[in-house]
Design a protein that fits this description.
- This protein is an all-alpha fold.
- The chain folds into two domains: about 160 residues; about 150 residues, no CATH class.
- About 60% of the residues lie in helices and about 0% in strands.
- It has a two-stranded parallel ribbon with strand order 1-2.
- Helix 5 packs parallel to helix 7 and helix 23 runs antiparallel to helix 24.
- It is flat and about 75 Å long.
Length: about 350
């Protein structure tokens, strides 16, 4: 189960600065709940003891109702569920949701099976398909002292009827840890990783050549916007990330062009982001390839036809991202794309092939 989020990728890879990790660990980053929980689960294993403690405290700060709701979320990964199970195994409501969630790993259930209450054990026993597929869960359930005689009889019947005698008789070994979920990698360069890992929270960042060109354009057309850009140019990378997540539309429109990929891609994680902004971003030719790649591979964002249309016509968009989107275009838009000289030849050729297939 893969997760795609630029901030999570930076946290996992070690590219994110400590302040971003601490904010994620404490639950204060404005990320989707399932992504934030994934980050906190990952940070439980961070090399920095302060971050590990913050992640543990952040997980325990969830109310039972909040965590139970998260455990019902079908977007939660097996790894995040497993880490939550370790923190909340004594809460019946949360464990019930963990048992029911189809994303829960077999190893998580095998770890819970010997210690859960009789009612929760019965819930697990009722999922006969899971027990047949993973006899180690059944073996772990046998060790539970809370089982009723009827529960033990049902386990014997499942083993006899579906598994064969003795298939789950051996005591269950301690389950191996559930692996971290795969995160789509944001390809930070070694220089960017080094820069992000050693950020000075008070150090301002200088504009890149492309940013300076944009400043000059802004200066000619909108003095007020120039003042805003000058203000942001004095910010550190960590402060820019905060602004990308929590700032206003005007600030996001500038930060999406930032030369630092952690800053620009953080804009796409802002809970304030609107559909119209995504449409504008999809047309920009002065943003990083990574921004356009994230937009083009996000199923939610590409539900908007205009985003798809603008993205495939953007010569800066990676070809491997735009090619799969061509089938989404109408025949009329594909015909217009064929004569768009700024679009890569391979994209225009594929548009022509699709039109040919659609013709009777």
């Amino acid at each position: 189960m893969a997760v795609s989020n630029p901030l999570l990728s930076a946290i996992r890879s070690g590219a994110a600065p400590k302040m971003i990790k601490l904010a994620a660990a404490r639950g204060s980053l404005p990320l989707p709940p399932e992504i934030l929980l994934e980050a906190q689960a990952s940070l439980l294993k961070d090399g920095d003891p302060e971050i590990r403690r913050a992640a543990e405290e952040g997980l325990h700060a969830y109310s039972p109702a909040e965590m139970a709701a998260l455990m019902e979320n079908k977007e939660i990964t097996p790894f995040a569920i497993d880490q939550a199970a370790g923190c909340f195994r004594g809460n019946a409501l949360i464990v019930e949701k963990i048992i029911i969630n189809p994303n829960t790993d077999t190893r998580t259930l095998a770890g819970l099976a010997p210690i859960i209450s009789q009612s929760l054990a019965e819930l697990l026993i009722n999922n006969q398909v899971r027990l047949i597929e993973a006899p180690e869960i059944l073996a772990s359930l046998r060790q539970n002292p809370n089982l009723s005689p009827g529960d033990r009889q049902r386990l014997e019947e499942i083993e006899h009827d579906f598994l064969g005698e003795g298939a789950a008789m051996a005591p269950a070994a301690a389950p191996l840890p559930v692996e971290e979920s795969r995160v789509e990698d944001i390809p930070f360069t070694e220089e960017e990783r080094a820069e992000l890992s050693s950020l000075d929270a008070d150090a301002p960042t200088a504009p890149s050549k492309e940013e300076q060109e944009y400043i000059n354009e802004v200066a000619e057309g909108d003095p007020d916007k120039l003042t805003l850009y000058q203000k942001m140019a004095t910010l550190s990378v960590s402060d820019k990330v905060k602004l990308a997540l929590l700032g206003r539309r005007e600030e996001r429109s500038l930060l999406i062009r930032d030369s630092n990929k952690l800053v620009s891609t953080s804009v796409l994680s802002s809970p304030k982001l609107t559909d119209s902004e995504i449409e504008i971003f999809a047309q920009l030719r002065n943003v990083s390839h990574e921004v356009l790649r994230i937009i083009g591979t996000n199923k939610e964002l590409t539900k908007n036809y205009r985003v798809v249309y603008y993205l495939v016509r953007n010569p800066k968009a990676p070809v491997e991202v735009t090619m799969p989107l061509l089938n989404r275009l109408t025949s009329m838009d594909l015909k217009l794309l064929q004569i768009e000289k700024s679009v890569p030849e391979s994209v225009r050729a594929q548009a022509k092939r699709i039109i040919g297939r659609r013709q009777p």
